[in-house]
Amino acid sequence: MAKIFHVLPYENWMDIKNSNSPAISPESLKHEGFIHCCKADQLFGVIERFFGRDLKLIILRINESRLDKDVVYEAPIEAPHSGLLFPHYYGEIPVESIERSFFIKRKTLEDTFDLPEHLLK
Fold first, then answer.
1. Angle 19-93-103 from CA coordinates, rounded to 5°
2. How many C-beta atoms surround the C-beta of residue 38 within 10 A?
3. How far out from the chain centre does Cα 19 lie?
4. Is the whole-model pTM more than 0.90?
5. Residue 62 lies in a domain
6. pLDDT tens column, 46-58
């Protein structure tokens, strides 16, 4: 099964870990009805576009076969004819479906994030 990724600010991940919640339920699930995810080759673009004000991030690698529902691959609302498809998950992500988490950081907002070379291993 495919690996998909969910990116979130480090502080949000710490809140989730400290709550001992069995599932991840970010704001997008409440407001849009799904959780935004991406494929490995989409990670850099997602981070650059949506996390420009963060210095520390967590990348969660999720195994699709461990999810309760199917992942739906859809075009972004702002670019429906772009030909790009992003994985969306219409439910909470069970913590047990997370294979690995990766901590990335940068010193200043002008720096870029370096993605771990071992994202898929």
1. 70
2. 21
3. 19
4. yes
5. yes
6. 999 999 999 999 9
